[in-house]
Amino acid sequence: MIAALWVMVGISLLLGAVLGFSAIKFKVEGNPLVEKIDAVLPQTQCGQCGYPGCKPYAEAIAKGEANINKCPPGGEEGIRKLADLLGVEYVPFGEGAAPKAKAVAFIDEQTCIGCTLCLQACPVDAIVGAAKQMHTIIASECTGCELCIAPCPVDCISMQPIGEDITNWKWDYPTIPIVQVAAR
Amino acid sequence: MRPLFKFHGGVHPATHKAESTRTPIALAPIPTKLVIPLHQHVGNRAVPVVQVGERVLKGQIIGRPEGRLSSAVHASTSGTVSAIDMQLVAHHSGLPDLCVTLIPDGKDEWIAHSGVDYRQTEHTDLRHLLRQAGVVGLGGAVFPSDMKSYSHKHKIKTLVLNGAECEPYITCDDMLMRERAADILRGAEVLRELLYAEEVLIGIEDNKPEAIAAMQKAVLDDKHAQMEVIAVPTLYPGGGAKQLIRVLTGIEVAAGVRSTEMGVQCFNVATAYCVWRAITFGEPLLSRIVTVTGNVEHAQNYEVLLGTPVDELVALAGSRADTNKHIMGGPMMGVDLPSGSVGVTKATNCIIEASPKLFPPPPPALPCIRCTRCADVCPAELQPQELFWFSKAKDFGKAQEYHLFDCIECGACAYVCPSQIPLVQYYRFAKSEIWQRERDAQAADLARERHEYRLMRIEREKQEKAERLAQKEKAALAAKAASPAPAVNPEPAHASSAAGPDDTLQMRIDAAVARAKAQAATAQPKNVNALTPQQQAEIAEIEARRAKIREMAAHAGADDEPPKSNQG
């Protein structure tokens, strides 16, 4: 009887030690859900969701503070992916939050006065320039967040939609053309 | 007799090859203009190196290769560059791309060129020659040939020369082999040398007996010991590189593996011919054989200058009035040209004039009945019905799991489909969507990285600034301790002991302002200390004038008039 008790105590101590050890050894740093949500977000860092970047928005979603339909650059597909990931229902975009066509910022170099305000606004350092030097956008790194437009004192930044060319052209989804047949 | 192997599936569409093989290859005349696309190969687009209005000679480079994977583009004849702009090109999208438009002068004047003896030339130099000569794979993939003629990574045992030409209607390789077999084999010999290959297997489908005979004769005549011409069974798509390698060597090139890793490299016969011309005569790739067939009076093969507008080419063969579109390539894998104005490129092996009678519009697609006839004929041993299902449902992850990217888009599945489903269109749609997603994901990763770096940088700058300030403060305190009565500005100093922190700050600011003022008063402009007396006199005169104006302005201000010219 006593022996059995000791065996049970021994086993529980051993297992407890194993569990305690693994809790320290395999501790998960940060919230893995935040990383997963962040991976779905388009990383434009535009702040249209009301948070100062994609990561803070991901954190807010993970905490349940923010809805999943606040990211227009991610498109409807982004919402669907988030809904899948979090196991919640799809939510359509709210009023006025529809996704826009992709665009990159463009600085009219004739008008630019070199004030560096847009440099400070750019979340991905995609603007090259210095004080009283002309600024220009690195188009390949611009996320199209439009954050540089508001601070410009001379309104020399505009958004240029990314056109379709041979390199980024996509095949259409096959559709069957509807043919009008004369009624008998 | 060499044992041959089989690849999975395949179909037997009507070949329609006899029409265009009745007459020998004709030389197409120089057209009225040439529209030469700068992106005729796999890889980076060539960069234009000529100006509008410049006169160029035949064989002159007009687009230089950009980056590692690229190829040069040349002027196909002598003439004047009339435009470098976006023109319609032979592409599924029907979108324009950068082209050089050349108005020929009719003289066909060559640029100075000369060949080399490949046996006495370094292989690196040979590859460079191929790149500069714009030699790319002419079987349709237009992959730069210099990038394919390496063998240092993997030992190449077999060089497969592809003369199968499996797609219906196309006969350009057939005619080339009949007429120029010797030069093809010499080119193959150069490639064999470059690859250190032990044997050259020339695969030709058995529906081209004349070509097989001509090639066999050339092998015997020139005593090419390591070469063998092999007739392979006619079966579409037996001319696909992986399929032909399978048939000739029995080697199954696995998914995501290059054939070179299995010791085999494959070149088209026309590519071998161009390699020979480029190396031995220094002639860049300026023209190619194009089959003009379909709805024409006399179907024939032409040797056509690259850039020749398709309209002018088909007029030679007598395009009939009811032609409704031009197809570049074969009926199975060809591209519908957006216009007759597009120029012939290195990839143009055939132009089929299509008419509603010849190619009736496909009947509407019916639902998939899961008969799996597509799976029976798929040469890549895929499950086309599953791929169709996933592509249609836009379930791209699943489509990739079913090896969508092993699909060679040969169209055999759509050919046998009893429901006439445009299967290949679905696969192409899915592929381009997946590529788009990959591009988006890459852009997102880049943006994330840059944003995180920016946040880190801002944080670091803040810290550095704080440290700098702390150090300055410390130094100032130390200095104060060293000399208890600082004699910088004795006037406000008397209140320092009794004043609070705000007062000391104000006091310090006052002191700094006073210091700056004193400095400004004593400072001499540095740019006037080494001047001639004449210049100094001029400066003095200007200063005097300024003083006068200031005085006048002050006077005017006193007379209650708005100050005008006092802003300098």
TrEMBL record, chain A:
Gene Ontology BP term (one): electron transport chain
* Pfam families per UniProt: Fer4_21, FeS
For this protein, the parts annotated as crossing the membrane are: none
Which key words are in the record?
4Fe-4S, Cell inner membrane, Cell membrane, Electron transport, Iron, Iron-sulfur, Membrane, Metal-binding, Repeat, Translocase, Transport
Q: Name one GO cellular component term.
A: plasma membrane
- Which InterPro entries does this UniProt record tie to the protein? 4Fe-4S_dom, 4Fe4S_Fe-S-bd, 4Fe4S_Fe_S_CS, Elect_transpt_cplx_RnfB/RsxB, RnfB/RsxB_Proteobac, RnfB_subfamily
Q: Where is each 4Fe-4S domain found?
A: 29-88
What the entry lists under HAMAP family is as follows:
RsxB_RnfB
Q: What is this protein called?
A: Electron transport complex subunit RsxB
